[in-house]
Amino acid sequence: CTTGPNTGNILTTAAATSSSSPPTSSASARAVVTAEETSPDSKCPICLDRFNNLAYLDRCLHRFCFPCIQEWSHNKAECPLCKQPFTSILHSVRAEDDFKEYTLRPAPASNSIPHRC
Ligand SMILES: [Zn+2]
Ligand SMILES: [Zn+2]
């Protein structure tokens, strides 16, 4: 977890100035691939074992097993490491433009009854 906070600051700055520049979703995906290649040791912070289907959080790009962070997201949708809320998990990453996205369901509002459609 050496480059996590820096990456978060960069993303936050980019989001703050997004009014003058186009969205950089592809850029964040590139960062994902780069982070994977430059990591010397790969251990999941949740199960403390080797990654089982490496997955990234969309906001902070911290890495976990996809099953681990998926289970974690059922309890709370925030990063176990940096506490940043996240809305989707990127997993099955093969290339910067070849990955799958697991989008969390929005938290159910306590004051509204979900309707079926
Ligand atoms: Zn794990
Ligand atoms: Zn994080």
Quick recap:
With 117 residues, the protein is an alpha+beta fold.
Description of the molecule:
With 117 residues, the protein is α+β, with helices and mostly antiparallel strands. It has a single domain, classed as Herpes Virus-1 (2-Layer Sandwich). Helices cover 32% and strands 18% of the residues. It has a four-stranded antiparallel beta sheet. Strand 1 and strand 2 (63-65) form a beta hairpin. The protein binds zinc ion (ZN) (2 copies).
User: What is the beta-strand fraction?
Assistant: 15-25%
Kindly report the average pLDDT value: 78
Proportion of helical residues = 25-40%
Tally of alpha and pi helices: 3
Distance between the termini: 42 Å
Question: From the 3D coordinates, which CATH architecture would you assign?
Answer: 2-Layer Sandwich
Strand order of the largest sheet: 2-1-3-4
The shape, in one word, is globular
The radius of gyration computed from the alpha-carbon positions, rounded to a whole number of angstroms, is 15 Å
**Level-1 CATH class name:** Alpha Beta
EC number: 2.3.2.27
Keywords: Metal-binding, Transcription, Transcription regulation, Transferase, Ubl conjugation pathway, Zinc, Zinc-finger
Protein name: E3 ubiquitin-protein ligase Topors
InterPro entries: Znf_C3HC4_RING-type, Znf_RING, Znf_RING-type_Topors, Znf_RING/FYVE/PHD, Znf_RING_CS
Structure characteristics:
117 residues; alpha+beta; Herpes Virus-1; four-stranded antiparallel sheet; 4 strands; globular; binds zinc ion; Znf_RING_CS; transferase
Secondary-structure map with pairings?
Elements: H1 4-16, H2 25-38, E1 54-57, E2 63-65, H3 66-75, E3 88-95, E4 98-103
Antiparallel strand pairs: 1-2, 1-3, 3-4
The structure holds zinc ion (2 copies).
Biased composition (Polar residues): 1-11
Keywords: Metal-binding, Transcription, Transcription regulation, Transferase, Ubl conjugation pathway, Zinc, Zinc-finger
Organism: Monopterus albus
